[in-house]
Amino acid sequence: MTELLTGALIADGTGTPLRPADVLIDDHHITAVEPPGTLPPHHPRRDLTGLVLAPGFIDVHSHADNAPLLTEHDTTKILQGVTTEVVGNCGFSLAPRTTTHADVHNAFLQRLFPPLNTTWTGFAELFHATDTAGHITNHCPLIGHGTLRVAATGMTDAAPDADALHHMRAMLEEGMTAGAFGLSSGLIYPPALFATTDELTALATVLGGNGLYATHMRDEGDHLLDAIDEALRIGHVTGRTQLSHLKATSPRNWGTMPDALARIHRARETGQTVHQDVYPYTASSTTLTSVLPTDYLTGDSEHTLAKLTATDAHAELTAAIGKTTHFDRILIATTPSHRHQGRTLADIADARSTDPISALIDVLVTEELRVAMIHFCMHEDDLELALRDTRTMIGSDGLPPGNGGRPHPRMTGTFPRVLGRYVRERGVLELPEAIRRMTSLPAETFRIPDRGRIAPGMVADLVAFDADTVVDVGDYQDPMRAPAGIPWVCLDGKTVVENGDFLGARAGTRLTPKA
Known about the structure:
This protein is of the alpha/beta class. The protein contains 15 helices and 23 strands. It is globular and about 80 Å long.
């Protein structure tokens, strides 16, 4: 299909100033970008007057691995103008899976994902399943270290022996051969939190010094700088390092972002390739089990539940986390029963005339550990400083679709929030630069083929938005509302969003990295 796009100001993804231009799409690709009125007028025409036309946004930190497998369409990203998602982050990928640890694999994934009918073992089989089901957006999969470890050793704090490590390396190689973009880790989640730097480095060598290591670091608070150093050591072996959702958590650590960025800048000065991503909110979101002490997480779910229901659990948790955890800042987002959603642990405790530790134990036990939380733990100044860094990209870090509840509003609002709050309202970024961070920078960093710029020969993944009105609409109590000001999205040359409504086509694909 041929279509001539006219009337828009072009943000071409390079960071150069906006300019008026006409863009010609022919079938799947952009074939011409010329001054207004210079292309032949006989093509079918789409008038985008008053809008900014940009490359489709790239969400570099997504957990929507399961989206193709859902019967219903996950429109949370496409309605934001996101046309490509990097999935498999934080050490959670849907493969590999071994029959030896199949039950543990399912329990591990259900800490994050809704129940899945896992029919695959390796990545080639997983990719066949998701490709057959169809993609709403393009997917760029990473291989999760946590999933590799579960497949090889189950849920244990023991280091993998030589045979297990060899198996992990072989499964990583299979995933890369099947078309994955790199290795991810989530070093606050079991069993990955028990992994040593040497274990991760041994896996990193599989990528041959020219691969990508994306990491939810071991610490984002008191030991943030040490965690950055570890990530850089592993990433140096891999070749490229992506620091996931860079932040400084807990009030006592607010103001440490300058030191964190200085550490990253020094690594770049030595020639290391390192980038980071952020989401534009001062609240994080993860599993509620992450607040528990490490010894509660050393085994499988039954071990954790047994620890929580032991007679001394209340006293142990009070001593370990009672004084350092701000329970009024922890909001329950999603549970299988949908109880407690939208309430803080402090509110739950007050309503029961009990204490927050008791509320924490009860919520985790009754929901069998499958609880997502929102944690108000960051400061606006640190966020804005990280946003200003020229190597910062944007990632939603939204929960997997299909869990229901009240997930973090970043699931529906990340990209319009950057454009509305941090470009238009606060002036943290200029609009062309914000578009570069969402398009060409991630395409180059993750080696995503033929996306990220408006130029002849590029795939026609495009978004048109109103720079004066684009805004996130969802909030923490009602997060699933679609954003405003994004009327048109084109994916692979096909219109998939018209007048802000998803048209129902699964026009995306699973991509493979450029060599």
